[in-house]
Specification:
The protein is α+β, with helices and mostly antiparallel strands. It has two domains: 150 residues; 216 residues, Rossmann fold (3-Layer(aba) Sandwich), CATH 3.40.50. 22% of the residues lie in helices and 25% in strands. It has ten helices and 25 strands. The strands form seven sheets. A six-stranded antiparallel sheet has the order 10-9-13-6-15-16, with no helix packed on it. A five-stranded mixed sheet has the order 1-12-7-18-4, with no helix packed on it. Strand 24 and strand 25 form a beta hairpin. Helix 1 packs antiparallel against helix 10, helix 3 packs across helix 9 and helix 6 packs parallel to helix 7. The protein is globular. 51% of the residues are buried. The N terminus and C terminus are likely disordered. This is SGNH/GDSL hydrolase family protein. Keywords: Hydrolase, Signal. InterPro entries: GDSL_Rv0518-like, SGNH_hydro, SGNH_hydro_sf. One of its GO terms (molecular function) is hydrolase activity.
Length: 438
């Protein structure tokens, strides 16, 4: 084996994640981590190991839903022969008791139905038990659930909370109809009849992983409301990460990636506000995902136009440098996404536009990034480049309709995701490889 190859092998071995800590550190607690068909196994970095097929970043704490069964509807990016769910009590102040949990396939073609495909409903367990307690501030992974999960399908992940655990952790802007059944444990009801109420948020759920997807690993989209899908058609899965997942599914299996959406509407790069800042939640929402290979970062507009605003481009550069350095230390490929135009929005000023342009110049030219997704160039109006192309503008001059989000997904160069150089992006590692190659 050559010296450079030995060095890369050593690097690959050192960046594999062990998910033991709190979400604020490296990842969730494991109830168990075994393939029901293959016996004991830990997360592998990759192929054949766990892949993130869906995710949502916790954004808020809301009043609890005691005695309620919550049927979350989620859309898979890749399929597999088994699944596991990530239950979250990230913003809870007391232990969260989950009385029962199930996973099922939603009836195809019925995005607003709580009914399961007959025969698909499976109980989820935690360390072999049907119930579990999630400590405050933590996530908990279930045991593997033996269910064949298709790609591009909707799953019903149902959780029953028998008591009052205090503030409930949610992802507020799901852009998906989810269902509530008050008055008891209805997790095993496949008909959906008890689910008489709906919610536009995901409760107590932050991820679904699949086993044996054949994909190369997991890609996370880290961002704000644009990544979260604001402006897109509800219950249709037309956010730009969804459309990117569709493009990736068309590739040969060895180049496919599962896609996890870590966008939060209102989120910022530099400051906590609507959810922790992107820097503060990097470990929990990105680096803790299984089989992580790449992250696409598109965030900063809420810092530019928010209160207080951040008017110095240097602070954005420093934040992106910290983010990329932490990701590269784990061997993760980092793609920088330029910030889209927003003239016509009430928050727009010429001074803020100058900041956006300066930050975008940095993203386009910095060697910090392994690739660039030039979202700005993809969606701007050529006649007025400080504005969104009218065909992509849902009317608020900030977010994007379905066509605009498709254009954003198309702006990601899939060649940037071949992942050949991610382990070499820090100067020290590049220099070490070059020295060994001489």
């Amino acid at each position: 084996m050559s010296a450079p190859r030995r060095l890369l092998t050593t690097l690959a071995a050192t960046v594999a994640l062990t998910l033991l800590g709190t979400p604020g550190a490296t990842g969730p607690v494991h109830a168990a981590d075994r393939d029901p068909a293959a016996g004991p196994a830990r997360d592998a970095p990759h192929r054949g190991g766990w892949t993130g097929t869906w995710g949502a970043a916790p954004s808020h704490a809301v009043p609890p839903l005691p005695g309620t069964s919550i049927r979350n509807v989620v859309h898979t990016s890749v399929g597999g022969r088994a699944a596991r769910i990530r239950v979250t009590n990230r913003f809870g102040t007391a232990p969260l008791r989950i009385g029962a949990a199930t996973v099922a396939l939603q009836v195809p073609g019925a995005p607003r139905s709580p009914a399961a495909v007959p025969g698909s409903l499976r109980a989820a367990t935690f360390g072999g038990e049907p119930s579990a307690t999630v400590p405050a501030g933590r996530d908990l992974l279930s045991d593997p659930v033996p269910l064949r999960v298709p790609a591009a399908a909707n799953l019903l992940v149902t959780l029953h909370t028998p008591g009052d655990p205090g503030p409930a952790t949610q992802h507020r802007s799901a852009l998906q109809t989810n269902f509530l059944a008050p008055g008891g444990d209805h997790t095993a009801d496949g008909s959906g009849t008890p689910y008489t109420a709906t919610t536009g948020s995901w409760h107590y759920l932050s991820g679904v992983d699949v086993l044996g997807s054949g994909a190369r690993g997991t890609l996370v989209a880290l961002g704000d409301s644009i990544t979260d899908g604001s402006g897109s058609t509800a219950s249709a899965n037309r956010r730009w990460p969804d459309r990117l997942a569709a493009r990736l599914r068309a590739l040969p299996p060895h180049r496919r990636l599962g896609v996890v959406n870590a966008g939060i509407a209102g989120n910022r790069l530099l400051r906590d506000g609507t959810g922790p800042s992107a820097l503060a939640r990097l470990d929990a929402d990105v680096l803790s995902r299984p089989g992580l290979r790449a992250v696409i970062v598109m965030i900063g507009i809420n810092d530019i136009k928010g209160t207080p605003e951040a008017a110095d481009p240097a602070v954005y550069e420093a934040a992106f440098r910290r983010l990329a350095t932490r990701a590269h230390a784990r061997g993760v490929h980092v793609v920088g996404g330029t910030i889209a135009p927003y003239a016509g929005h009430p928050g727009y000023t010429e001074a803020r536009e100058a900041v956006r342009q300066a930050v975008n110049r940095f993203i386009r030219t910095s060697p910090l990034f392994d690739g660039v997704a030039d979202f700005d160039a993809a969606v701007r109006d050529p006649a007025r480049p400080n504005r969104i192309l009218p065909a992509y503008d849902p009317g608020d001059h900030l977010h994007f309709n379905d066509a605009g989000l498709q254009a954003m997904a198309d702006a990601v160069d899939l060649a940037d995701l071949r992942l050949h150089t991610s382990a070499l992006r820090t100067p020290a590692l590049r220099a070490a490889v070059l020295r060994a190659a001489r």
